[in-house]
Design goal:
- By secondary structure, the chain is mainly alpha-helical.
- It has a single domain, classed as Up-down Bundle (Fumarate Reductase Cytochrome B subunit).
- Helix content is about 60%, strand content about 5%.
- The chain contains nine helices and two strands.
- Strands 1-2 form a two-stranded antiparallel sheet.
- Helix 1 runs parallel beside helix 9 and helix 6 runs antiparallel to helix 9.
Amino acid sequence: MNSLLWITIPYIAFASFIVGHVWRYRTDQFGWTTRSSQIHESRLLRMGSPLFHFGLLGVFGGHVMGLLIPETWTAAVGISEHTYHLMSITMGSLAGFAVVAGLGILLYRRITVPAVRRATTRNDKLMYLLLVGALATGMLNTMTNVFAVYNYRETVSPWFRSLFSLHPAPELMAGAPWMFQLHVLVVLALLACWPYTRLVHAFSAPIGYMVRPYVVYRSRDPHRQGSHRYAKAWVEPEAPPKRSRWV
């Protein structure tokens, strides 16, 4: 059972994550977007989206540090386990609350705005369910760890790194508290479904705007609402006037 949960399922999730993105990019490049619903409602989106995305960056950074950086490395630079624990609880709580608040606003918007609700697909519903599950179990672990300190860097983190060294150690994860195990399983399910949802936009960046010779903007002229114009990013030198053949 331990081999199934902490070796087979993780590798299946990683394979789905990698192969799924390649397949999605090759077969559905036009669908590689967030399918933005800003046209339907923007006020709640302006509040919820920054909270969610910036908070998620903090959560991701905390997970990278906690899972990928061994405890011996932080000890070598003078960061004790107690100091690391305080830092992780403080920063993790702030980032987690920001993500929860942002996601709450976005879910409220998606449920209460009819046009946005109609644009919600089955994949979106599954994605939101897994996101809520991952955030709920992660925040519960963080809050519980304030009172009952559990050093996950001695079990969960080495297990996670062992998967990439191709020498998995399922016994490490099997000894972790059940809430940590549940959090990991929900996150693995989210990773497996990631390529088939709008979350693929996390790997897109508007790099092309850096080299495009024009930008698209909407006219502020009230008589031209809905029209688009193209503005040159540079000013080309004017060509000299042609001389008339009659001169």
